[in-house]
Protein: Glycosyltransferase 2-like domain-containing protein
Amino acid sequence: MLPKYSFIVPIYNEEETMYEMYRRISMVMDQMDGPVELCLVNDGSRDRSLQIMRELHQKDSRVVYLSLARNFGHQIAVTAGLNFVRGKVVVILDADLQDPPELIPDMVELWQQGYEIIYAQRTKRRKEGWFKRLTAYTFYRILKNLADVDIPTDTGDFCLLDRKVVDVLNSMPERNRYIRGLRSWIGFNQTAIKFERDPRFAGDVKYTFRKSFALAINGLVSFSKVPLRLSTYLGLLAAVASLLMSLLVLYWRIFVPHSPLTGITIVLMAIFFLSAVQLVSIGILGEYIGRIYEEVKQRPLYTLSEVAGFQDKKY
Ligand code: UDP
Ligand code: MG
Structure:
C-alpha cells in the first residue's frame, strides 16, 4: 500500500532539532487517516544528521530518506523530496519546527474541501531579528509588485500540495527552483492558512544572509522581467540627464565667463554617473544571462549518495 500522506523535511546540519522534530511530527502522523511517510532530505549535512536519519529509519519504517551528495540548497533539497515521495497529499515543512506540524490536520481539512494548494502564511515571526524581519518584509512586497504571477506575501515553503500539483512541479524542467513562485505560477485552487511563526527550536539559522540574498534575487529574476526594463529606464534617464548637462555646460562655456562648474568636477560627476548606470545595467543583464547559461547546461538538479525506504511498502 502506498502512503496517502508524504511529509518532506529538508535537513542541513540539524542534529540538534531532529529528535524533537521527529517526536512532534510523529504525533501528527499518528493522527492522520491513512498511511504516512516522512521523507527526510539530507542536504549535504556535515554533522550527525545523516546518522540520525538512518537511526530513525531503522526504528520507524515510515521514515524514508534521501541524501544529496553535497549541499545543494534548501530549494533543491525540497525538489529532490518532491521527486521521490509517493503520497496523494504532500506537505513540505522545515526541520527546525518553525513550521508547526500541528497545523497539518487543518491543512488537510482544507484539502478535503477541494483546495489543491494550501500555503501557510505567517502573520507574525516570533523572536527573529529585526534585520531579517525588515528585509523579508520589504522583499516580499517588492516581489509581489514586480512578479508576473501573484506570489502571496509572507509565505515560505510550508505548504500542502495535492498529487496533481506535485506532478506538475516535477514536470517543470527549470533549474532555478524558487518553489513558492512556481507554486503560485501553477494555478489550481489555492488558499492560505494563517499561522504565527515560532522561533527556531535549536541550532543556528542555516539560511545565511548570503543564501537568503541569493534566494531573493532568484525569486525576482525568475518571476519578473521588470529588472531588465529597469536598465532600459536607467539608460533613458541617463540619456536625458546627459543631454541637459551638455546643454548646461555649453551655456556656461559660452555665456558665463570663468564658470568653475565647467571644470574637472563636472567631468568626473558625469563619468561616475554614466559608469554606474552602465555597470548596473550590465549586472542586471548578467543575472538573466547567467540563468540562461544554467538552463542550457542541462546538468541534473542534484546528485544522490543514498536513498532508503522508498521500496518498502509495509505500514
Ligand atoms: N536548509 C537546507 N539547505 C540549506 C539551508 C537550509 O536544506 O542549504 C534547510 C534547513 O535545514 C531547514 C530549512 O531549510 O530545515 C530552513 O532553514 P532555516 O531554518 O535555517 O531558514 P529560515 O527559518 O530562516 O527560513
Ligand atoms: Mg528556520
In short: Residues 5-224+301-308 form a domain with the Spore Coat Polysaccharide Biosynthesis Protein SpsA; Chain A fold (CATH 3.90.550.10). The longest helix spans residues 264-297. Strands lie at 5-11, 36-42, 63-68, 89-92, 117-125, 155-162, 190-197, 304-308.
